[in-house]
Each structure stands twice: as C-alpha cells, then as structure tokens.
Amino acid sequence: xxxxxxxxxxxxxxxxxxxxxxxxxxxxxxxxxxxxxxxxxxxxxxxxxxxxxxxxxxxxxxxxxxxxxxxxxxxxxxxxxxxxxxxxxxxxxxxxxxxxxxxxxxxxxxxxxxxxxxxxxxxxxxxxxxxxxxxxxxxxxxxxxxxxxxxxxxxxxxxxxxxxxxxxxxxxxxxxxxxxxxxxxxxxxxxxxxxxxxxxxxxxxxxxxxxxxxxxxxxxxxxxxxxxxxxxxxxxxxxxxxxxxxx
Length: 247
Ligand code: APR
Prior knowledge:
Elements lengths: L1 H13 L3 E5 L18 H4 L7 H6 L1 H15 L7 H11 L5 E4 L5 H5 L4 E3 L2 E7 L6 E2 L21 E4 L8 H13 L2 E5 L11 H7 L3 E6 L12 E4 L2 H14 L1
Parallel strand pairs: 1-2, 1-7, 2-3, 7-8, 8-9
Antiparallel strand pairs: 4-5, 4-6
Helix pairs in contact: 5-9, 7-8
Bound molecules: adenosine-5-diphosphoribose.
C-alpha cells in the first residue's frame, strides 16, 4: 500500500489539474449509509419512493420516507476528514473542483468552493408549479406533504429523482471539468447509476490518470482505474494530504 500511495502522491504532485468525483462512500464516515450493499439505504427502503412518477402519484408516502432519510437523518451529519481534506487541497491549489453525486451538502459544509452537484442538493425545496425555492427550515415538514404557501402545490426536494433528467448545466460543467483533468480522483462510488457513471470515462478518454479510493472494488476498478487505494476515504485522503503538504 505504501508504494501505491507514493505513486499516487507522485502523480498528484505533477498534476496541473486534479478533479475529484465523489459518491455516497465519502459520507459513510459521517454516519450516512451508502445506497447499495448490505447496510445500504436500498436494503431498508424501497427506491421507488424516489421515482418521479411514484412521487407525483403518492406524494405523502414518498415524503414520509424522504423526510426520514434526507431531513431527519442527514440534518445532524457533519463533514468528516475526507470532505475536509478535499477542501484543504482546493485551498492549497491541489484540487480544481469536486463533481459530487451526493445531495448531502457536506462538501460545502467542509469549505469546498467549486462543487458541481450532479444530482442536485437536498437543502433546497422547489415548487414545481411556480418554481419558488425554500429551505427545509422555511417549510413545515411536520405536515406531509409540504405545500407551496402561494399555490398549494406539493413541494419537491431539488434533487434528481429516478426518471428525471440531470440538470443540463451540471452535466455540461461535469463533462468539461472531467475532460480537463490530468488526475481524476474517484472516491466512494460503485459506478452503477447512469448517466453519472459515465463522467469518469470522459476523464480517462482524455488521458487522465484515475486514482480510485474505496474499501471495495467498484465497476471502475478493473476497467479504468490506474491506481487503486483500498481503504476508507477519510483515512486515505488524510494520508494523501499529509504527504502532499509535507514531503
Ligand atoms: N470510504 C470510501 N468509500 C466507501 C466507504 C468509505 N468509508 N464506505 C463505503 N464505500 C464505497 C462502497 O464500497 C461503494 O463502492 O462507497 C460506494 C457507495 O456506493 P453506492 O451506495 O452505490 O453510492 P453511489 O455510487 O454514490 O450511488 C450513485 O445512486 O441511488 C443513486 O442517486 C443516488 O447518487 C446516488 C447514485
């Protein structure tokens, strides 16, 4: 492992443009479970609550689960050493941007500035009718489903549901960012959900070195990964950062 870490450090030091692509795994050490795997959210909840058609047809049922997962549970989560290490890397000119699939807002809470949110953010609710936006605090989540105070339509979390398109700007910025990357850090994602799963391929096709951090192999590991750092994001990124700043 030491040699592999050293190889990653060498590549990161030479890079003029490093991009991070993060998935649910980076927030596991903040107490947020991933989606897949034995302890994953989808082993406890039915993913259809996040299907856009189901949401429109059964807003109360969807909202009950959405509130439990994304508002009661996420609300107490704080950035962990992995989020913080990426923020410090950016501050020191060692990271250009983060493309995240996560909607938990933890990169921003850690202090990262350039964060492209591929799947939106849970900290905004939107009225699909008048497009007005609200924070969770401005909304009464004790009476579900929450309604727009102006036109009484059901509010929707401003993140991407299954069956919804990716916001055009997020896809465009992510594509550009990954195509410009010399080094691409792939952190805590299985690569199972399209179209997000395509983004690392854009970096690879443009010659980026792919460094993957994950305790387990993912769909990417034997396909596009050049350097596999096996382990938890918090531990590996803290070590990378320490070596980048001191060696
Ligand atoms: N550090 C790094 N990676 C970890 C850690 C950890 N401490 N713990 C688990 N992982 C890894 C797992 O091994 C797995 O590869 O994180 C990954 C989590 O994978 P998923 O649960 O599939 O999450 P993700 O890839 O982000 O899912 C993509 O699926 O349901 C949708 O929209 C949702 O954005 C999400 C998308």
